[in-house]
Amino acid sequence: MAQSKSQDEQSTTKKEKAIYKVFNDSVHGHIEMHPLLVKIIDTPEFQRLKNIKQLGGGYYVYPGASHNRFEHSLGVAHLAGKLLQSLKKNLPEGLEITPNDELCVQIAALCHDLGHGPFSHAFDIFMKDFDSSWKHEDVSVKMFKHLIEENGIKEIMGKENENWDAFSEEDFMFITELIQGPSNSASEWPYKGREKKKAFLYDIVANHRNGIDVDKMDYFTRDCHHLGMKCNFSHERFITFARVCEENGETQICMRDKEAMNMYELFHVRNLLHHNACQHRVVKAVELMIMDALKEANDHFEFKKAAMDPKRFVDLTDDILQKILHTPEKSTKVEKAQKIIKRLLKRDLYKFLGAKTFQPQELKHLTSDEERKKVLKTWLGKIQTPEVGSQRLKLEYFKEVQIKFNYGMKDKNPIDSLRFYRKYDPNTPIKLSKHEVSHLLPEKFAETKVMLFYKGEDKDVEKLAKREIKYFWNDLDIFSSAIKNSRTYMDFTDFSKLLEKKMVTAQEICEVFSNQGFYRFIAEETFKPKLELVDNSELQKALEAWLEELEQQAGRQKIVQSAKDFELVPYTPPESDSSNLYLKYKGLFREDLDKFWQIVGLGPSASDYSFREFLCLYLVIAKEVTVRLLRQGYFLIDEKALETDKLTRLDDRKWTTLLENWLKDIQKQAQRQQFRFTANNFKVVSYHLPCQTEISKVMLFYKGLTEDDVEKLWEQVRKVREAPPAKKAKRS
């Protein structure tokens, strides 16, 4: 303890002797900077950050977002120092924070963004087109080394003086590790700059344990301040209640248990910032234009080479657009870049066509840019019209952008990696359960938003693409890639995990999917107010008008023959001001469908499973499967449950043979035109739940109706509702 006190006194003495410089910050007020930090600040490499906007293209959308990486870096260094001072008050016995520990952390905080290029993260995306391994953190380390060597600071740091101890090689390694993160080493402790007992120091600037660090705390507060948004997270409370605890021989920063909601608020603010500002659709349009201008001008300006050379990288700032605009070079590519910049200055931006949010797993089949371009190309070919042909729908005119929103740890809850402590036991780290925090917390922590932009200026193309964009979302869906193939049989077991939802509407879903004789659910629509004034005869007329409209479409063969093959069933949930209208199909006889299952090898007992206690979950997934296949033009005509081991004996070829045998069998009976088709018109889908793997759900779909076809029916129903009601006869 005597040695620890001596070092603390030495640290205090050095701090008293050091002449700190005061900066007046727009967020933190008056902040003090150590003289060594001031030497780093007063260099061309660091001053360059004044010309790089913090939010990149966000300044073109939010006039207040004029703050830059320079002031953010000062703020991060300030918060790192404040947090270290707070942690020093309650360190575990035998643990200390030396003066050089403190300076190394603050230097890393100050220099962590030196590697950002023009327009911040937009330049990262631009560079990854050339080098997929590009990371601005790696360039920050390279720029830091260049900065201290070019300006003679490394030599100064290597000598002890009245303000700091001499920096060792371990200290320089420690700074680079704080900026760059852990190595890919397979060893238990991936760092060399500091030993394992000082692991908590690595959580301050860039926290790879749970994402809670002073970098985020500054940019959340600063961005909200300049954007005019409210930031409900309090970094002051975090710094006040932060404490170092030890778990399994490794130290980490822990938080007081009562601050759990404040920590969730941190990630909630992060999500709001990205949704409302960083990934705003107009911001993305602006940044796409900036990146396209850089790509066109790259041959002349050689941005890639400049980014790899610290001496040239100093000149890469947001001013690059003006350099491109006013360069005397008149090559074709430079002129294209200038045209894009002029469009940007005139606010003639790329056109936003639409956006849709997916679960990350729903897009896992699109692993590369080429696969996404293939989907886009297929969609463009599908939406062509005689007026707008392929020459006007060129692939290079369209850009699909995938944006990943999360809480900083992909689909995981970062708070699960944070440890807390109790007031009465401050040295014991604990993990809080959900019931100790709140039941009103997020259930999912990641989503992917897909945006589609049109780069051209053809109004007809823009109008067509906006009108037909729903087919693009349909083609992106993971079910689309599974359904659009020549296979008859598909196992949807893996997909069923994507379709599990809350059972709040299980009763309604059971109502929708209840087997009423040989009826089968196709689709549903909600009407508000209730359908009290619409009788069955009016619904029957709507069905007849709908089928007449479908028959007028040339070349459309249907399994259905008349309105008698369908039924519209209204259903009003209790205490509701709206009605659900269900479309059901009854064009197949029960005995025909029973013959299909008999040919498959299922006796009458197969329908007796009823799914028992798993009924609701099966129905939830079944409804989602039905909806997804309807989008692809298939509607459900029957479903069964059978033993999974029987199902595994049937491959795609056998299913095709079974369908062909079934069609031949029922065609031998009385002439029914609806069975003039082949097995290619059918799809068989199966899945089982993880909780009941011995039973599988098998669903038989027929290709005949699409989502658009069904939408035309709802339009007919709306016309019935809009018609004036018939006058009632007066009572005598």
- Per DSSP, the total helix count is 30
The gyration radius over C-alpha positions equals: 33 Å
- Count of β-strands: 16
Global outline? globular
The residue ranges in which pLDDT falls below 50 over 5 or more consecutive positions are 1-7, 501-519, 554-559, 603-617, 670-675
Helix content: 40-55%
Query: In this structure, how is the largest beta sheet organized?
Result: 4 strands, mixed
Q: What structural class do the secondary elements suggest? A: alpha+beta
Beta-strand portion reads 15-25%
Across the major sheet, the strand order is 3-4-7-8
Q: Whole-Å distance between the termini?
A: 107 Å
- Could you report the average pLDDT, rounded to the nearest whole number? 83
Q: How would you sum up this structure, described in words?
A:
The model is unreliable at 1-7, 501-519, 554-559, 603-617 and 670-675 (pLDDT under 50). This protein has 30 helices and 16 strands. The protein is globular, with a radius of gyration of 33 Å. It has a 4-stranded mixed β-sheet with strand order 3-4-7-8, with no helix packed on it. A 4-stranded mixed β-sheet has the order 10-15-16-14. Helices cover 45% and strands 15% of the residues. The longest helix has 21 residues, at 281-301. With 732 residues, it is α+β, with helices and mostly antiparallel strands.
Detail the topology: elements first, then pairings:
Elements: H1 2-17, E1 21-25, E2 29-33, H2 35-41, H3 44-47, H4 69-87, H5 99-111, H6 121-128, H7 136-150, H8 153-157, H9 169-180, H10 214-227, H11 235-241, E3 243-247, E4 250-256, H12 260-278, H13 281-301, H14 303-308, H15 310-313, H16 320-326, H17 332-345, E5 351-358, H18 369-382, E6 398-406, E7 420-422, E8 425-430, H19 434-437, E9 446-454, H20 459-467, H21 469-476, H22 478-483, E10 489-491, H23 493-499, H24 506-513, E11 520-527, H25 536-551, E12 566-571, E13 579-585, H26 590-600, H27 615-631, E14 634-643, H28 644-647, H29 652-667, E15 682-689, E16 692-703, H30 707-722
